[in-house]
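Entry 12.
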Amino acid sequence: MRLNLLTATLIVITAASVQAEDWTPLFDGKTLEGFTQKNGTATYRVEDGAIVGKTNEGSPNSFLCTDKLYGDFELEFEVKVDNRLNSGVQIRSQTKDGTNAGRVNGPQVEIEASGASGAEAGYIYGEATGRGWLTPKERLKPHKHMKDGEWNKFRVIAQGPRIQTWINGQPIEDLTDEAIYETHPKGFIGLQVHGIRKGSGPYEVSWRNLRIKELD
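Predicted 3D structure (tokens):
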């Protein structure tokens, strides 16, 4: 009986270890190693174990992008955004002509403070794809699942043409889009600092605990 109990315990521990090893940190908590900035002149820095993006007046959208490309994956991160700033995380994205100066394009998971009337955080936008929102208009309903001024946990699963999102454990989007999958089956993860109007800002958005699990 004791042997069986020991064997069962080892199996549980081994399974938990394998599961933990499936996850890979995207950010080491200290440096921006493994990332390259594309587009824009917003600044990115590491502060208290988080990546902090700061707007620069007159800059277009800026993106801090993973050097590695990802296809099917599960992504988790925590984010805190200024109530006056719109942001997002690009997935399976690319640049026009494949250069750092080329326009970043692809699916984007929206990040936006809820405010008084709610927001569209967690829905999927087609950044520079010419399509606008990929989330169908009838599902694009503002909600208040983002906690303003606090850290919020996002979960994203991209598998084939299906993209699912959660905010703080609440399911937000379940999108199947064959067209965007055909053009963007694989690409980088990009942390967006949105461009701002002249005379506004500066504003900041922070990310921490970024990790990814590649799926078969």
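Annotation: The radius of gyration is 18 Å. DSSP finds two helices and 15 strands in the chain.
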